[in-house]
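[recover] target loaded
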């Protein structure tokens, strides 16, 4: 069946329908990873977005449920150049086509994803529609595309009630803003007892549990829309509990302490982004997924100083908080799959908790 991707600038791509046969409007973003498509599909940070995979062949090793980063996929739609319909891998438990259909996610294959990515890079991230309706009226669709916003998606992707991963080491409170499973798993593998809290949990409840450390997770959407969560993070900042934050958590801590954020032209999404540790000058390859960034032009050094910078575009990739046991990063040190270069940051967090015990 034919399918169409219509962008808000009027560009139309024609391809083949994959997954669910339904019409969606979403923000169109691209990911440059060469592998890990299942982890991309199940990353809650993609809620409210449709993902373009720039690598031309997707699905060749099938679906392995053990590799999922959450219980279900989150993107509104999926866009690929070529979909492998016969996966070859001893761990494969099904095809992407079946996976998309099962979870009611529509997609489109057979389009020039490199040309699409060039448009998004030149004009910036824009909204689009995936439809199988050959009689679409573009003049009616464009206003709908321009009006679309992802809205408040953190509450949608967060866990509904707290749960615990048992461990014999430090007690970590993980605020689930759309957390990938591997964050809690990485802490648990280091011996931590990890209690995962829903995004709207009060700071008082977390502090009352007397954790040795607090982790603020990744997540989707515009950080400035998380107004009530920012207020609670301000209270966590004022506590003396060590805090480590990733991605959205990094942005929310910055907003909670007086810094600002803005939307990037097309964001960073992929497993090959170089970041420089400003304290050592060493460069690490990182996995990233974000469309917003912390402004450092007016950053108060009495509150925080830049700790990491993106080598490609010099945007901020991390902050060290002055006089506090708090550090935050924009990238994903728990990347799976992806580069393990920055996994040492979990060890740094462990040492922070040991020193303050």
């Amino acid at each position: 069946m034919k399918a169409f991707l219509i962008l808000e600038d009027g560009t139309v791509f024609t391809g083949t329908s994959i997954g669910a046969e339904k019409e969606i409007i979403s923000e169109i973003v691209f990911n440059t990873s060469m592998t890990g498509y299942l982890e991309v599909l199940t990353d809650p940070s993609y809620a409210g977005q449709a993902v373009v995979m720039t690598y031309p062949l997707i699905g060749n090793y099938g679906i392995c449920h053990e590799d999922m980063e959450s219980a279900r996929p989150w993107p509104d739609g999926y866009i690929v150049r070529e979909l492998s319909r016969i996966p070859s891998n001893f761990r494969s438990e099904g095809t992407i086509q079946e996976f998309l259909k099962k979870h009611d996610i529509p997609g489109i294959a057979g389009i020039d994803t490199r040309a699409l990515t060039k448009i998004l890079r030149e004009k910036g991230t824009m909204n689009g529609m995936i439809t199988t309706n050959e009689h679409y009226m573009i003049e009616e669709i464009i206003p709908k595309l321009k009006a679309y916003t992802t809205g408040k998606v953190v509450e949608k992707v967060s866990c509904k009630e707290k749960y615990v991963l048992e461990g014999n080491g430090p007690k970590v409170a993980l605020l689930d803003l759309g957390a990938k499973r591997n964050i809690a798993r990485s802490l648990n593998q280091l011996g931590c007892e990890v209690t995962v809290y829903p995004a709207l949990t009060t700071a008082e409840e977390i502090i009352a549990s007397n954790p040795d450390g607090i982790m603020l997770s990744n997540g989707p959407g515009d950080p400035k829309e998380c107004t009530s969560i920012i207020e609670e993070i301000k209270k966590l900042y004022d506590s003396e509990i060590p805090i480590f934050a990733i991605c959205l958590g990094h942005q929310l801590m910055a907003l909670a302490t007086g810094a600002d954020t803005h939307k990037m032209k097309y964001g960073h999404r992929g497993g090959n982004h170089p970041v420089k540790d400003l304290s050592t000058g060493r460069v690490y390859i990182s996995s990233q997924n974000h469309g917003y960034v912390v402004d450092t032009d007016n950053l108060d050094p009495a509150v925080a100083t830049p700790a990491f910078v993106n080598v490609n575009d010099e945007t901020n990739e991390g902050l060290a908080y002055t006089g506090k046991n708090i550090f935050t990063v924009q990238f994903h040190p728990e990347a799976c799959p992806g580069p393990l270069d920055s996994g040492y940051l979990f060890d740094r967090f462990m040492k922070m908790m040991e020193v303050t015990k």
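[recover] notes: The chain has a mean pLDDT of 95.
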